[in-house]
Design a protein that fits this description.
It is a single chain. The protein is α+β, with helices and mostly antiparallel strands and about 375 residues long. The protein has two domains: about 270 residues, no CATH class; about 80 residues, no CATH class. About 60% of the residues lie in helices and about 15% in strands. A five-stranded antiparallel beta sheet has the order 1-2-3-4-5. The two termini are about 35 Å apart.
Length: about 375
């Protein structure tokens, strides 16, 4: 049986890697399209896009991991059942509980991977991602230095520059400010410069024309200027301080003094408890998902329509168990001492697994008990 366990475990790990690769690729492509459009549209380079994609990968993998664990358990169980391998081992005297041992070990391996991601890698990546997003938001020049394109850095403002010289001079500049409904202001200049002024940034326009239209009176005022300074810091909603979030903190940090964490992040003790224990519950969910996939297919009988019924039942059980978790979140957010309720769905899932394996071990006993 030790050789059979190693054989089944190797099959599970191979399929787990395959499904993880496929699902990560599918989810990443969907996310990359939106991310690429947003970053490149704001004037960022392809290297920034690759950096953001890499920083978002741990969270993406943590989302895919439970699905890959369940899919691998279902696929391997179905194949070994169709090839009569499980039937032969059961005929040799192995009980369903004994057959579930490699599945259980596989679930623990997956849970350990999930623990590393949820408790260490994902918070670290999210913290770095938050820092980089703040830096990009503060980089006003990156959002305005795109020649030949009408840019909209904020609602009601349009900016255009025809040419950007190698020395940083902006030529053929157009700036329209429609944020105030009562008036509209247009600025045109032959040259302009972006100048840092402490925490702010000014656009210095040279040899230009300012046109102000009052909408109520329909009155147009024009003024030529040799140089004019326009504060553009408010156009991008700059926040110089990167906000600290409990989602960006590792589990070791969350185990510290909750009062200091509350002062630092503004999150209550209930939010901290929910974030911390949800990470552990999410990791343990991989074990339950793997065993449920195995036990449900083990109960299935032969059907010419295939195993779709068993797969749907197993998936429905997982959806139900995962949905239960959201029902207990509010209780923990209100009272941090209620954190044990987050593990109730896992306890229910474990009982379901034991019940299905028990029924597979002795279905006649269950029928007798039902008649009694």
């Amino acid at each position: 049986m030790a050789k059979f366990d190693r054989y089944m475990l190797s099959q599970l790990l191979v399929l787990f890697g395959f499904f993880s690769l496929v699902l990560v690729a599918v989810f990443w492509i969907n996310r990359a399209v939106v991310l690429f459009d947003r970053l490149i549209g704001d004037g960022q380079t392809a290297l920034v896009f690759l950096e953001f994609s890499a920083l978002g990968m741990p969270k993406l993998i943590s989302t895919v991991l439970p699905l890959s664990t369940f899919a691998a358990a279902v696929y391997v169980t179905n194949r070994m059942k169709n090839e009569s391998q499980l039937t032969v081992v059961q005929a040799a005297g192995s009980s369903p509980f004994r057959l579930a041992r490699p599945i259980f070990v596989f679930g623990i391996i997956s849970a350990l991977m999930m623990s590393i991601l949820a408790n260490v890698l994902v918070p670290a990546a999210q913290a770095q991602l938050s820092v980089r997003e703040t830096e990009i938001t503060q980089n006003v020049t990156a959002r305005l230095l795109t020649e030949g394109v009408f840019l909209h850095p904020t609602f009601g403002v349009t900016f255009y520059t025809g040419v950007i010289a190698p020395d940083g001079v902006l030529r053929d500049v157009f700036l329209a400010d429609h944020r105030t409904p009562e008036e509209r202001v247009l600025y045109t200049a032959s040259e302009a410069y972006l100048v840092r002024n402490g925490a702010g940034t000014n656009l210095i326009m040279v040899d230009g024309l300012a046109q102000r239209l009052t909408t109520k009176r329909q009155r147009l005022s024009t003024a030529k200027f040799k140089d004019f300074s326009y504060n553009i810091s408010s156009l991008v909603n700059i926040d110089s301080s990167a906000t600290t979030s409990i989602k960006n903190m590792s589990s070791i940090e969350l185990l510290g003094n909750w009062n200091s964490i509350t002062e630092q992040t503004g999150s209550g003790s209930g939010s901290i408890a929910e974030e911390l224990h949800s990470r552990f519950a999410q990791s343990l969910f991989c074990v339950v998902g793997a065993v449920i996939g195995f036990a449900t297919l083990l109960l299935g009988t032969f059907s010419r329509f295939g195993i779709w019924r068993e797969i749907v039942i197993a998936f429905a059980i997982l959806i139900f168990i995962n949905g239960l978790r959201s029902t207990f979140v509010d209780a923990v957010l209100t009272n941090s001492a209620m954190w044990p309720v987050l593990y109730i769905p896992l306890a229910i899932g474990s009982c379901v697994c034991v019940a299905m394996l028990g029924y597979a071990s002795n279905p006649s006993w269950w029928r007798t008990g039902a008649r009694l």
